[in-house]
Structures are given as C-alpha cells and as structure tokens.
Amino acid sequence: MVDNAADATLLIRTSCPHCASVAEAVLRLTKMGKLGRLELINLDLRPEPAQALGVRSVPWLKLGRFELVGARSFHELEDWAEHAAAGSGWPEYLLALLSEQQLTRVIALLREHPQHLSDLLDRMTNEQLEMGARIGISAVVEELAETPALRACVPQLIELTLSAYPQTRADACHFLGLAGDPTAAAAVRRLLQDESEDVREIAVETLAVLDGSDDLEESTGC
C-alpha cells in the first residue's frame, strides 16, 4: 500500500473494446492500495464530464496529474500509478505524449509547469534516445523559443554543449540560439573548433543569432 497513493478518474463507454480491461486494471490497483480513490464514469449514461474535460476518446484515465488515453496494460498503469504517487515520471510522460503526436498538449503542460522542461532536456544525454524523441524535443524547444522557461535552462544547455555525444552538443547549441540569451555566446564560440563538422556549422548559425556577426565563417578556419 502507498501512503500517498494518487486518485484516478476513468471515463468509459459501453461499446468501447478496451474500456473493460482498463477498468479492471485500475480497479485492481485500487484494491492493491496503489490508488487512493477511483471514480468510474460511463459516458453513455453521464456524458457531461466528457465535455467538461475535453475528452474525445475512451478509455480516458486521469491518474494523479497524468492523462492517459487508450488501451494500457496493467503493468503500464501500475508504473504510472507509482510515478503519480512519487511525483516522478514527467520526462517519460512528456516523451510518451510526443510519441503520440500530442505536441500541443506537451506545450500546454510545459507552459503550466515550466520546471519540467529541464527534465525533458536531461533526456538528451542518452545516446540511445530514439531520433523521433529527439525531434519531438526539438519541436518543443522551437515552440518555447525565447520564453522565460527556455532561458532558465541556458546553464543546463551550456553544460550539454560539453557532452561527449556530438548530437547532444549540436542540439544544445541550436537550443541556445532559440533561447536567445547572449550570455551563452562564449560557450557556443568554443564549439567553432568542435571535432564535428555538424556542430561547427550549428555554432556558426547560433552565434549569428546571438551576436549578429556576419563574418563568422572566416573565424572557423573552414
């Protein structure tokens, strides 16, 4: 039993092929003490919550602060219940939303909880991070360009320019340009001598944004 177990709300429809298995799973988690309270609503009989919550498909589960849509296994829901109870799991949740093409939802969440942008950027240090996830993170940062949330991450991005992984250095450099903080110019200028041609090229582009230089290509020695 988890002392600070999360509460859950599950919306279903009678005709939904996946709703029964999800309902069974969350009921089991409630009996195990991994959920503190479960509210189960059949939208065929009580349609009002769907409109109030903006729900368009079921099963729809609000588990703590996570919203999960569609079929989920018991073990997957158990993991989310544990994350919800511990207040963890935000990077995994945001990446899961990005994999489901829910960029707008991710942006809305990060505008509401900007501290989780740092958690997402931390995932860039993983060399095994799928390219789709990297593209998703890039899309998020582009949407948050020059916002206080992204500028707050400038020290973290500067640290990421020291990564042993060229793709991470390149991404971090590009993101520093999107942050638009001229104090990052010194860190970016160091990348003009990077061993990776791609990183050097992005450094030139980023410095052009940060300090408006038109002659940077000559300083690279390329």
Automatic annotation (TrEMBL):
SUPFAM superfamilies xref list: ARM repeat (SSF48371), Thioredoxin-like (SSF52833)
Coiled coil (residue ranges): none
Family matches, as InterPro entries: ARM-like (IPR011989), ARM-type_fold (IPR016024), Thioredoxin-like_sf (IPR036249)
Protein name as annotated: HEAT repeat domain-containing protein
Organismal lineage: Bacteria, Pseudomonadati, Pseudomonadota, Gammaproteobacteria, Chromatiales
